[in-house]
Amino acid sequence: MTLLDVRDLVVRFRTADGIIYAVNGVTFELEAGETLGLVGESGCGKSVTNLAIMRLLPKPAGRIEGGQVLFDGLDVLAMAEPEVRDLRGKEIAMIFQDPMTSLNPVYRIGEQIAEAIRAHEKTDRRTAKRRAVELLRQVEAPGGLHGDEMLGAARRPLEASARARVARVHSVCGLSLGRQRSLS
């Protein structure tokens, strides 16, 4: 069964200097369990395609002006914003290229992951913290930093590889248990 079906996706950015034609008719299908890599030169629309699928384009400049995005049979482009917000992080997630952008330096890593879990699983703080530790244990960082230690760590002192692993957990921590894949 097709999990993600993108058909003729068109994205434009309207700026003071004119229209930027960012994505022009992108089409692909992704079956459950498959991996797809979008490859291309810098600025060719890879990130914009993913932001459009997730409905995270910067507003008001970024607009989806054509095409269809079906996720597990749901028409993502026709969904109301609260429905899309519920879908994001619970059923579909994006792992950003720069792990620094997905973590707030003011809060501890564990707080941020537990907050995302609570937003999607409607659970209490203790359960969310326990779940955050479980997820962090799956991505043990080099240098011996383990789940419990990462939970209380600040974002800044972590090595780049550890930040990337934490960002991976943060991006997918709200995914339903039935859909979660290995994080390592």
3D architecture notes:
The chain is an alpha+beta fold. The protein has 2 domains: 2-79, no CATH class; 99-172, no CATH class. It is 32% helix and 22% strand. The chain is built from 6 helices and 4 strands. It has helices at 46-53, 81-87, 109-121, 125-137, 147-151, 160-172, and strands spanning 2-15, 18-31, 62-71, 74-75. It has a 4-stranded antiparallel beta sheet, covered by helices on one side. A hairpin with a 2-residue loop joins β1 (2-15) and β2 (18-31). Residues 176-184 have low confidence and may be disordered.
Instruction: Output mean pLDDT.
Output: 78
Number of strands: 4
Instruction: State which percent range the strand residues make up.
Output: 15-25%
Cα separation of the termini:
25 Å
Derived from helix and strand composition plus strand pairing, the structural class reads alpha+beta
Q: Spans of 5+ residues with little confidence (pLDDT < 50)?
A: 176-184
Q: With helices defined by DSSP (H or I, 4 residues minimum), what is the helix count?
A: 6
For the biggest sheet, the summary is: 4 strands, antiparallel
Which percent range fits the helix content? 25-40%
Strand order of the largest sheet: 2-1-3-4
Radius of gyration, in angstroms, nearest whole number: 18 Å
Shape: globular
List the domain count as a whole number.
2
| Topology pattern, helix = H, strand = E | EEHEEHHHHH
